[in-house]
Amino acid sequence: MNKTKLIKIIFFIGLWILLSTFIIKIYNKDFEIVNNNNSKSLKKIFQFNEDLKEEKLSIFLIPHSHCDSGWLQDYDGYYYNIVQYILSAVVSELNLDKEKKFNWVEIGFFSRWWNDQNEIQKEIVRNLIKNKQLSFISGGWVQNDEATPTIDDVITQMTQGHQWLKDTLNYTVEYAWQIDPFGYSSSTPTIFSSMGIKGLVINRVSNDVKSYMKSVKEMEFIWKGSESLGEQSQMLVSTLNVHYDYPKHIDPKKEFSLDERVKGFTNYIKDLSNTRESSILMIPLGDDFRYSNAKTEFSVSKEWLKVIQDNKEKYNIKEIKYATLDEYFIALEDDFINKLGKSREENFNSGFSSTLSLYNKDFFPYSTSDLEYWTGYYTTRPLLKRLIRESSLLQKSSDILYTLAIGENSNNPIDINNLQKLSNQLNENRNTISLVQHHDIVTGTSRSFVLNDNFQRLQKSRISNYNIISNSLEFLLNKNNNENKDSQNEPFNFENAIDLSNEPNNQYSLVFHNTLGWEVNQHVSFRIKINENENKLLESLQLVEAISNKTIQIQIIPIQDDSKCQSIENNYIVFAIINLPPLGLNTFYLSIVNNEDSKSNTILSKPKLLKKGNEINFNNNRFNVEFKSNGLINKVTDKHSNEIKTIEQTFHQYSTKKSGPYIFNVKGGKKHGFLENPDKFIYHDGPLVSQLTMLYGVDDDCNVTSIVVQRIYKNNNSKSKTLITENYIETGYSINGDMNRETTINYKVKDLENDDIFYTDNGLESRKRIYNHDRSVNQNYYPVLGYIKLKETSSSENNNNQYTVYVDRSVGATSPSDGEMEIMIHRTMDTDDWKGVNWPSKDIGRSDAKLYFNIDLVNNQLQNEKRISLHITNQPIMFVKKQNNQNGYLLKYSPLSNQLPSNIHLQSLLTLKNNTVGLRLFNIHEDNSNTQSTTNTDKSTLFNELGISNFIETGLSFVKLTKNNLIGKFSTRINKKFPIECGESEYSFIDEKPSSIIFSNNRTNNIIDDENKDEKNKTMETIQIKPHEIKSFTFNFNWKLDQIIPNNNNNNNNNNNNNNNNNNNNNNNNNNNNNNNNNNNNNNNNNNNGRNKELNNQHIEQSIENQRYEYDFSFFPIKPTFYEDRGRYNRPNHLTLILSLSIGIPAGILIIVITLVIIYKKRKNRKTLSSSNYLSI
Asked: Is 679 a catalytic residue?
């Protein structure tokens, strides 16, 4: 090889290396640009006509800062590191310049900052609000997700924010700003409009959908949330063109000259104006955690803004200014009205017609490209999603029982004052439930250490609620006098497993709380533990209903087989059928009694080991269930219709390396069978339950990797109606997260034709979904809150069957083929999807869960569907008291005179500030005779003997509701070419009459409603609730308010909680002394012969939560797998690897070749030299 060729080769290699390096840098630069913009949207502006509209533009600049309540840092980290400085800097700048405005969303952060300020700073804030410089938008505690929280939790977090604003600043929110959730639920306009919100800004609409909306100028539209509620669920929506950050050229963090900023901005508004019908434009000035240096941000904006303002005619601008969102929406409404030549006032007083696009679906799934469908987060972190849901139920129980305890003791001011010491704890617990509804917490899309922080917050709130419930039960049920003081020493406790091993001779009081407004007859279960040598005592275990002294039949199932290979030895599940009054309590005694009566009512189900799962069938009053050889469901007979249906139940896993916390992507992956062959089958049978347990991965060391439990509930009482727990086939499972696997459970109904149509619920009602076979399965996933269902379409609807799977937490689901429902139940991966978290979601933790399968006629399920879902979600909560003497205790209690109508759900009952009580009633709609009935309920005895007054209808967040008079006056059009093809309401009940509940007033209470505020001593009031409507009310219990310490819980910070708790003992002693004096001097006190109750200060220990089992069948305590993921994660750069290999391999070969050539030449030279030397000799 000559020297010239070698130089050429080296030159071309060098050139190739330089070119490759350039390509890598461009790739990384492009990635960083996207990542700097939060990596959650496509930063590409749609190309439109460059010409401005003839109409002059009004431009509203919306300064804002999007402050996540947890994402890459935890809540405390964000507040202390940046949020407190943002708020202080913004307030300072607004105070210096009245032209500057600011819009704030997250009230959780703001209330925390407010509590840190002195009175001077607070007065400055009040003036800024008065001057309309500082505006609160949305007003929730956080900016909630829209796919995964329940409607109860969304309402709670909005209420916490709205109540704080009203109580602290006398501020009412009218416009909302949901700019970061990953898709939008149809429940949002329904809920928000019921809170008095008139307009909404959204952002994360799929890129292709947003491009279409721009092209047809439908970025402003009317969104209808429910067909049943019609205009009542509508609101005006404005969509952001690109993202919620600054337009590129005016971003203070980017380096541009003044000319470049002005030119870039004017080009931006040209494009923006060509996507709108209106000449009113809104431009966000902000981004994630901006304005910590508010002075700089405003000063940079001031420069280009002055140039624009000085040249408005040149740029065809009528006005441009800093603005609040309220100003923008008022101008937008005026613009639509003025197009018809009428003033705003004229059109409010007379009808007008203006056409806007009407949208009646939702915005799921959200996508940023064909390979980026954000459907994974529907299921991500399933254990956390479950913990949030059950913590919410515990909070509901705590709110109800505390409120009832206040009401029952309303004639004893000292007891009220004692109880109110719990109010701060109660409010903080609501704040915790609100915090985890943030769109990167309940979704599971934060860093692992952030999720761990929220997990611990939930645990603490649970322990606090245990304490509140324990004390509330004591104040509700304990009517003891001074002679029986010892009975209060043992508190009511939460017991995950009642330990009978140490003191088997004790009697335990089990108090069950029903959070529903209906009477409940259903199966319940609880765990017990005994010593190994006391197993024979199980047959003597007795459960007695205290009020009737009736022995209740129980069935006991061991949580192990005869080989004792499991780790849960001597743990048992006790099943019983109990009755609970509406919203009430019922007490049962659990004890070991050696008599024949107990033995005849106690069935100990011994385990039977099977070789195959198809050796047995399940039977109850509703179903006969047959299994395949692997123990999964094969056939179900509906005994109501005598139809036999083949149901193929299977587990599967998608293997993929392209998914992440947000995105589910099956490209390049495969679908595998999962849990196909159990290692062991264990069968238990009895009068109440049939159960088949399958164990997987059993080894010689007694390890179990996965568990599946099939269960059916039974009732041998032929005289009783079918229990609600008999209406489904329950499948429990316990699985670990397998790396790079996304696990599903599938139900496939043979020969079912559903024409690719299925339904999921949004918490309020069912929504229609269509499986699009032109897309991959991950692009057809939708969020599920309560259930997914299929309906037959082959015959008349009246005789069609419906197949429903109810879930116990939010999940993603689809219907990939006729008759099939696929539900994703776990997912974990060691890759990230690079949407901002920048760290893989390695959730290898165990998830214990339950699914509930139902078959029924469509018409029957129209009546029962929502009720079953509510019963599953609102399971009775049990508290335990070690008690040998129940004298003086109420054994059964209900605050309601009658149970509510079957279609009216009591959604909320809680105590607000100053002892005001909030009540929400939800018409779930049941298509039966009860739906249209009028229920006569005496309002003064609605809560039995509890007198109530000041009964007022409010908005959903218990703030005075301002009706949106604008919506009903628009005429609208539906664009049938809109690129979202499904998501509308399944049914419309708008023509049906509302349910009427009549409250008669037999006392002298002052009844007030919105329409008759001046009427007094009114004798009757009718409340009408439409199908799918939630109505809210506030009232007061009757008491002598001058004797009660005001409850100002919303203005207290966390430190106040500790101070109150530390002072409990001193206050109690003082209260007892005062009470003794009151008893001697006040003959009107109804508790003269009793004693005032004291708060129980024996707090439940953290270990209760650390050792808690998720379900009755669980082998393993709850143990989430969080890990340390602070800092930067080094992204695997596949392009770099490919290019490196493409360079490295040829270069390596070339080096070897060159080396061999050099060696060859050297050897040749040596031989030549040797020959020359030889010849010279």
From this structure: no
